Amino acid sequence: MKTHPQGLLLCVLFFITFGLLHLVEAGQEGFISLDCGLSASEPPYFDSTTGLTYTTDNGFVQSGKTSRIDKEMESTYNKPILQLRYFPEGVRNCYTLNVTLGTKYLIRASFVYGNYDGLNKELEFDLYLGPNLWANVNTSMYLTNGVTTEEIIHSTKSKVLQVCLIKTGTSIPIINSLDLRPLINDTYNTQSGSLKYLFRNYFSTSRRIIRYPNDVNDRHWYPFFDEDVWTELTTNLIVNSSNVYHPPQSVMASAATPISKNAPFNFSWSLIPSTAKLYMYMHFAEIQTLQANDTRQLDVLLNGINFYTGFRPKTLATSTIFSTIPDTCEGGKCTVELLKTSKSTLPPLCSALEVFTVIDFLGLETNQDDVFAIKNIQNTYGVSKINWQGDPCVPKQFIWDGLNCNNSDISTPPIITSLDLSNNNLTGGVPEFLASIKSLLVINLSGNNLTGSVPQILLQKKGLTLNLEGNIYLNCPDGSCVHEDGNGGAKKKNVVVLVVVSIALVVVLGTALALFLVFRKRKTPHSEGPPSSSTQTQVSDARTTRSSDPIIVNKNRRFTYSEVVKMTNNFEKILGKGGFGMVYHGTVNDTEQVAVKMLSPSSSQGYKEFKAEVELLLRVHHKNLVGLVGYCDEGENLSLIYEYMANGDLKEHMLGNQGGSILDWKTRLKIVAESAQGLEYLHNGCKPPMVHRDVKTTNILLDEHFQAKLADFGLSRSFPIEGETRVDTVVAGTPGYLDPEYYRTNWLNEKSDVYSFGIVLLEIITNQPVINQSREKPHIAEWVGVMLTKGDIKSIIDPKFSGDYDAGSVWRAVELAMSCVNPSSIGRPTMSQVVIELNECLASENSRKGISQNMESKGSIRSTEVSMNFGTEYTPEAR
Ligand SMILES: *[C@@H]1O[C@H](CO)[C@@H](O)[C@H](O)[C@H]1NC(C)=O
Ligand SMILES: *[C@@H]1O[C@H](CO)[C@@H](O)[C@H](O)[C@H]1NC(C)=O
Ligand SMILES: *[C@@H]1O[C@H](CO)[C@@H](O)[C@H](O)[C@H]1NC(C)=O
Ligand SMILES: *[C@@H]1O[C@H](CO)[C@@H](O)[C@H](O)[C@H]1NC(C)=O
Ligand SMILES: *[C@@H]1O[C@H](CO)[C@@H](O)[C@H](O)[C@H]1NC(C)=O
Ligand SMILES: *[C@@H]1O[C@H](CO)[C@@H](O)[C@H](O)[C@H]1NC(C)=O
Ligand SMILES: *[C@@H]1O[C@H](CO)[C@@H](O)[C@H](O)[C@H]1NC(C)=O
Ligand SMILES: *[C@@H]1O[C@H](CO)[C@@H](O)[C@H](O)[C@H]1NC(C)=O
Ligand SMILES: *[C@@H]1O[C@H](CO)[C@@H](O)[C@H](O)[C@H]1NC(C)=O
Ligand SMILES: *[C@@H]1O[C@H](CO)[C@@H](O)[C@H](O)[C@H]1NC(C)=O
């Protein structure tokens, strides 16, 4: 697995953010460690006994309630066992984990009842992996430590893994922790099926359970020793454990050998069920210093049959002997026997043994495209049906409400054939992606409150019956809300021809044309002639209309390189250095000032992001977003030409670097309120919505009238909405502003921008650096949180305001900022809420007259409320 250097840096910063200055274990890549039942607002924590970082399971499961084991038992267990999630509702409740397709994972779930409900019961329920039974879970206080653990080694067949708990009787299923560890692909191979853990022992008199970080894969090794017949060998020397199975050093540093020189080394166990097929992995190393005339050689027998013959353990190096085909044991009684060969002068030895049984997962998961589409529907409409969890079609008894599936052919994945969401109070539009469920023959959305128009693609789909009756605000084509196989013909409903629709269509087509031209031209770079007059007129046209109405952009906004040279006066004046090149001052048409961002040719990623930015800016127009005047795409010469922002960025003004006076509170508030509108437009006004991903004070630019505009969309990404899944492999953004949840889950979300915006708010309030190592808490959000808890409110406010502010509006902004930086995205407001809140702050600031003398008392009253609120969770108080 690759380690991105930037990722590492951010990782470190992330831990600083949460005050966990521990060594970051590079080996946790791909690990998912869930403390089930941990509160959603709790940040990830570092478990000092294991060195693992656990996160809440919130976001991985949609149902269930959280609880804690009985107080009296708390001393027996550690985190992550202390809390649990239980599932009183529904029969099947599932965790959904993002995984890499075709990768082998060790999956482990732990269950401790711990009398959490005070009923002193034992629980019985089932555990499924996708559509297949994995284990019958039985919690019992009589088990070792009362912890029930199920573990399996499984190769993923899709990009998501569903771990489901299923009610089988009266018990309410529970779960305390869920771990996922990627393994090396070429280990623990089977002919078919997955490996269900039976035991994993190392032979030592120690009582220590060995796990991560000693075991890079976080396998748990339990000590076992039969003192009657074995004697222990140990070494202080390093055993080279670098075969593919990588048993930990501490496992390989000890071994058991029979006391009696000629006795075999025997080890026996029972199989349940007795007919199960098994795979066995034995780990050996010669850890004794052998005399010149000594030899150790052994035969391995399983149930009296040769398994491996004439094996010589290597000196201080690990060898693993393992099954390549499954074995069985007669009557379920298995014995592995190590016998000294005739050449051997020494008895056999062994360090560790792992045994698994095979579970063949025969049930296929539902077609992945269908699953993706149906999840999309679920998210779009917020369908909250308790049984819409796990695989939509299988097993049959858990098929989602409202779906019909075809799984008649057991050798192909089940497909979804009908969807009935009639009378479900659904609101919003009819999404196009419904058409992406290829096998879907019936869609019944009647009796809802859908709006907008019906996508053409649905109307044209062959064989599809579409029922949209009873959605009174929906514009059905030709007035027909029942549609069959591309030839509708039912009742007339309200026919409203909206001009807006056709205009929107023109815009879309225009943009598509422009993009087509942009990217087609890329292939013929040196084809531009001298500047044409049409270019000039188009630019000035653009200028007159840009600030208000959206315009249809066309290829005439493209400039040649020679024009760029001319407009910048041969790159005379540098304005700054951007993410991937220099930014120069320029003039178009002798009057309009522009900022020309040149893409440096050495930048390897550049073209992709350049394309992204052109594509984006061409379709995004808002008064609070920096507008694109044009671009140049001529061979190696790529540049973006923006409107010139005469007053630089917000940060300079906060620092007083612009020579002018430091911005007062009211101006700062106005600037952030405007920036919030720009961001809100990206989230809600654009189709598809966009995440800016790099909101920060240096990306808030000010024009000559101090109107704020957001800049730098180089990192922006559209949400994957239709059909397309996008996996972000590199976490982008600026340290300090980066949403910790995004960093952790790599899950791109508009709430990540809200987090960054919260940091901007904290900056304009405090005028403090985002990260300052010499502060009690280096990260600004933590620092402000601590100050608020202490009730030390005044010390966070920028002293440069000199008391010239409405305390109410400042406190309100503080509250808003703190809710934006809530570690959990669910707790953060949306940008629409932020805009409303900031506009209200601004209004109260604007109407301020003669109340500044009241500030002290007002401030202190509010401060108590604030500190009470923020002392526990960062949630804004209700108004
Ligand atoms: C898993 O991936 C999907 C699609 O990429 C994404 O929408 C979802 O938020 C991810 N879930 C988590 C818990 O990261
Ligand atoms: C793992 O191995 C299987 C077959 O041995 C192969 O199909 C799959 O692509 C491999 N996965 C990775 C991530 O290498
Ligand atoms: C679970 O425990 C009950 C009661 O002790 C027992 O009857 C049952 O056989 C157990 N089931 C399993 C799968 O261990
Ligand atoms: C361990 O063994 C492997 C393979 O034999 C070898 O490549 C590696 O260098 C050895 N490591 C050490 C520390 O001796
Ligand atoms: C070891 O196991 C073999 C095969 O089950 C058996 O014949 C033998 O008696 C056992 N030896 C000891 C010392 O238990
Ligand atoms: C091996 O050599 C040692 C002396 O170096 C001797 O005591 C021992 O008996 C020898 N063992 C055998 C099996 O010959
Ligand atoms: C289910 O799909 C199969 C082909 O995979 C088809 O032959 C069969 O008719 C379908 N059954 C139904 C009820 O649609
Ligand atoms: C729809 O809304 C009505 C009124 O609020 C409510 O009674 C009904 O249960 C809702 N139906 C569904 C399926 O949510
Ligand atoms: C759609 O649902 C409505 C209400 O449940 C029902 O009356 C109608 O028959 C259904 N239509 C189709 C095509 O299934
Ligand atoms: C249906 O949607 C319209 C427009 O979005 C809204 O005004 C109306 O209140 C909604 N009706 C119900 C019953 O939810």
Automatic annotation (TrEMBL):
<dbReference type="Pfam" id="PF07714">
    <property type="entry name" value="PK_Tyr_Ser-Thr"/>
</dbReference>
<protein>
    <recommendedName>
        <fullName>non-specific serine/threonine protein kinase</fullName>
        <ecNumber>2.7.11.1</ecNumber>
    </recommendedName>
</protein>
<feature type="signal peptide">
    <location>
        <begin position="1"/>
        <end position="26"/>
    </location>
</feature>
<keyword id="KW-0418">Kinase</keyword>
<keyword id="KW-0067">ATP-binding</keyword>
<feature type="region of interest" description="Disordered">
    <location>
        <begin position="523"/>
        <end position="547"/>
    </location>
</feature>
<keyword id="KW-0547">Nucleotide-binding</keyword>
<feature type="compositionally biased region" description="Polar residues">
    <location>
        <begin position="530"/>
        <end position="547"/>
    </location>
</feature>
<keyword id="KW-0723">Serine/threonine-protein kinase</keyword>
<dbReference type="InterPro" id="IPR008271">
    <property type="entry name" value="Ser/Thr_kinase_AS"/>
</dbReference>
<dbReference type="InterPro" id="IPR000719">
    <property type="entry name" value="Prot_kinase_dom"/>
</dbReference>
<dbReference type="GO" id="GO:0005524">
    <property type="term" value="F:ATP binding"/>
</dbReference>
<keyword id="KW-0675">Receptor</keyword>
<feature type="binding site">
    <location>
        <position position="597"/>
    </location>
    <ligand>
        <name>ATP</name>
    </ligand>
</feature>
<dbReference type="Pfam" id="PF00560">
    <property type="entry name" value="LRR_1"/>
</dbReference>
<keyword id="KW-0808">Transferase</keyword>
<keyword id="KW-0597">Phosphoprotein</keyword>
<dbReference type="InterPro" id="IPR024788">
    <property type="entry name" value="Malectin-like_Carb-bd_dom"/>
</dbReference>
<keyword id="KW-0812">Transmembrane</keyword>
<feature type="domain" description="Protein kinase">
    <location>
        <begin position="569"/>
        <end position="842"/>
    </location>
</feature>
<dbReference type="InterPro" id="IPR017441">
    <property type="entry name" value="Protein_kinase_ATP_BS"/>
</dbReference>
<dbReference type="InterPro" id="IPR001611">
    <property type="entry name" value="Leu-rich_rpt"/>
</dbReference>
<keyword id="KW-1133">Transmembrane helix</keyword>
<dbReference type="InterPro" id="IPR001245">
    <property type="entry name" value="Ser-Thr/Tyr_kinase_cat_dom"/>
</dbReference>
<keyword id="KW-0472">Membrane</keyword>
<dbReference type="GO" id="GO:0004674">
    <property type="term" value="F:protein serine/threonine kinase activity"/>
</dbReference>
<keyword id="KW-0732">Signal</keyword>
<feature type="transmembrane region" description="Helical">
    <location>
        <begin position="495"/>
        <end position="519"/>
    </location>
</feature>
<dbReference type="GO" id="GO:0016020">
    <property type="term" value="C:membrane"/>
</dbReference>
<dbReference type="Pfam" id="PF12819">
    <property type="entry name" value="Malectin_like"/>
</dbReference>
